[in-house]
Amino acid sequence: MNVLHFAGAFFSDSAHWHGYDGIPARLGEHARYTLQALLLATAIGLPVGLVTGHYGRGGNALSLVATAGRALPSFGLLVLMTTLLGFGMLPVMIPLVVLAVPPILVTTYEAMRSVDPAPVDAARGMGMHESRILFQVELPAALPLVLSGLRSAAIQIVSTATIAAYVSLGGLGRYIVDGLYQRDYEKVVGGATLVAVLALVTLALFWAVARISVSPGVRRR
Amino acid sequence: MSDYLHDFFDIPSDLQHSWLGLIGLHLREALLPVAAGLLLALPIAQLCVRFRWLYPPVLGVTTVLYAIPSLAFFVVLIDYTGQSELTVMIPLAVYSLVVLVPAIVDGVRSVSEETLAAATAMGFGPVRRYFQVQLPIAVPAIIAGLRVATVSSVSLVSVGMLIGNQGALGNLLHDAQIYNRPELTWNSVITTALLAIVLDALLVLVRVLLTPWMPNRPTRRRPAPALEDAAR
Amino acid sequence: MIITAKSSTRSIPRHPGPAAVALAATAALLAGCSSGGTSEDPLKGGDAKGGTVVVGSNNFAESILLADIYGEALKSKGVKVTYKPNIGSRETTYGLMKNGGITVLPEYNGSLLAYLDAKAKPKTVEETTTAINGKLDSGLELLKPSAAQNKDSVTLNSETAKKYKLTSDSSIADLKDVAKDLVFGGSPEFQTRHQGLVGLKSVYGLQFKTFKSLDAGGPLTQAALKKNTVQAADVFTTDPTIAREKFVVLKDPQNLFGFQNVQPLVRKGELSEEGAEALNAVSAKLDTKALLELDAQVQLEKKDPLDVARAWLKSAGLD
């Protein structure tokens, strides 16, 4: 139980709990990067996915974009952007957003396409406006899948923001990269534990959001 | 321009591989885990199909495993397997497994009762029915899972650079830094992306060849949520 | 047989032309045919141990270059060499030296001593070597030091130097009052080393605003200094960009960064006498000026370190 021992040592060292390199500061940074990137990616992917899914057009174009986005290696892109743009948030945000848009885009599109056409036709027959059909009929039914796309995106951002410590980004990856270079296995394991916990918390948050926001009628299906 | 191209393919001696050598190394580190994942996923998925109660807990465990970031996974393994290729490949095999199990389960389950009944009526035993009816019909779903697993695996190998230069094409990223040679970063990114795209296209081709009865365009399906967890 | 003939370098001239290689290969082939494999394994050669020497290096350009110089110098004496370059920081490579994963490693005497004993304060190079040998793992030993030095440093960008009116005649101690306003950049390992942030605090009383983990004096550090993301950073004194970017290296009167002579660290008894002599001959020829020039060839002119190493050995008559 080596790893547990190292993790225990890391968390019981009070020096790891304050200052710019303390756990609260690094955790805060990591959460901030994740939120920023997720919001940006959602702002791009969600509307496009909803509209294309609603009209059922552009599926092929979307899957091309998604394949291309996934094929780009995020770690390489991170290093490349840092080389091209230097320091700051932008070179980090670009790869994180490129990474997060495809799952949001594709899942949203698929979610909208998988909505039972009968209620949509009924709504249209009742003279409902297209935008109301989208938001009041399709979206509630598609919500579980849409959320799962956002969840994937969030998990990937948490994971990749860790690697970004190599190009001197803060966040929890700092502990892992610093620990590797300092041969401080305690730090490495401590950092790895924190990142894993953050990823699991993200998972739990999405589960909770889904419980609250998905209408019971849809959930029972 | 030709100078630049020359620099582009001029791999620093410390990597001890040519450009093609690095590609070979990258393919091995990326594809062996996917193959291992597939070999493990088939029996696990079959168990989940056979014993329905098993599937929800398996899905839960795999979702949690998939949430563990690659770098965290790598570094924890260093204590057991050292800074080696194996340390990179084990997590990639786990990620592949996690993507493939739901893909196979959903695929095999999508075979209708009527089809199964017809097979039974023709005198197929359960084993023959699995290999000759259920598995072939599940091929599109399995290939869809393989595509995600493969592309993600190719992308993730690069991260192995961080644990003692075990990242094949990803090692170019570090050399680009220490030798001030940004063209090596471009090389790494472009080559890795092309590898992923070519492998993805090959898998699509395999699906078309294996399922001659299907239209070339896959029919609309409810995607398994985990399938969208691609590169991390 | 062809392959083994090529790799047993002792049997062929130091600079085998294609003809020589072909000849040796043919000879070996013939020998293989006639003797029917009863002869000795050619790989064993006549070397002391007959084993392969593994030359390792840390993960920055100069270390890789030095490893190439050592490795090629050994090869020219007929030692069988494999490279394990670009491994990681000293914290990693020292561990590999101890457990036998690598046989030869280019080291910097002061940094190595600081790693082994943070409190040591040697006054001369000889004292440094003695102090290291006292602390070194029993399986390891240092060969002769070279005159070439490459130190860590506290280096300011020109903007910061101007702002606080500091020049290359100023000392690290002059930062005492302003450090709290400065962000310091260095490799992740610099943060926890005595010859690093720890010593800057205990020896010079410097407490920086924050520390930013970058790389070991590489392009991240250079870019961060240039863009003023960090105002001060650890830059290696042989870094060719110092002059180009008009960075200001502060003096180190307390000798925190110690002596930093390039010196081969080897595993005891795993290198033939001839091999050790080859490395000592390299140390005898290598000085700071030569090192600066070689670094510039790799980092500014973008030549491959292995080519640079071979060319230098040739020019120094060590090939």
Termini distance of chain B? 34 Å
Helix content of chain B: over 70%
Strand content of chain B: under 5%
Q: What are the segments of chain C in which pLDDT stays under 50 over at least 5 consecutive residues?
A: 1-49
The ordered H/E elements of chain C are HHEHEHEHHEEHEHEHEHEEHHH
Radius of gyration of chain B: 20 Å
The overall strand count of chain B is 0
The rough form of chain C would be described as: globular
Oligomer: heterotrimer
Number of H/I helices of chain B: 9
User: Which CATH top level class of the largest domain in chain C fits?
Assistant: Alpha Beta
As a percent range, the share of helical residues of chain C equals 40-55%
The overall number of domains of chain B is 1
Kindly describe this structure.
Chain A: InterPro entries: ABC_transp_perm/SBD, MetI-like, MetI-like_sf. The complex is a heterotrimer of chains A (221), B (232) and C (319). By secondary structure, chain A is mostly helical. Helices cover 81% and strands 0% of the residues of chain A. The longest helix of chain A has 34 residues, at 130-163. Chain B has one domain (2-9, 17-213): MetI-like (MetI-like fold), CATH 1.10.3720.10. Residues 219-232 of chain B have low confidence and may be disordered. Chain C has three domains: 2-35, no CATH class; 53-148 and 258-315, 3-Layer(aba) Sandwich (D-Maltodextrin-Binding Protein, domain 2); 155-249, 3-Layer(aba) Sandwich (D-Maltodextrin-Binding Protein, domain 2). A five-stranded mixed sheet of chain C has the order 7-6-8-5-9. Chain C has a three-stranded antiparallel sheet with strand order 3-10-4, sandwiched between helices. In chain C, strand 6 (183-186), helix 8 (194-204) and strand 7 form a beta-alpha-beta unit. The relative contact order of chain C is 0.16. The model of chain C is unreliable at 1-49 (pLDDT under 50). Chains A and B meet through helix 3, helix 4, helix 5, helix 7 and helix 8 of A and helix 3, helix 4, helix 7, helix 8 and helix 9 of B.
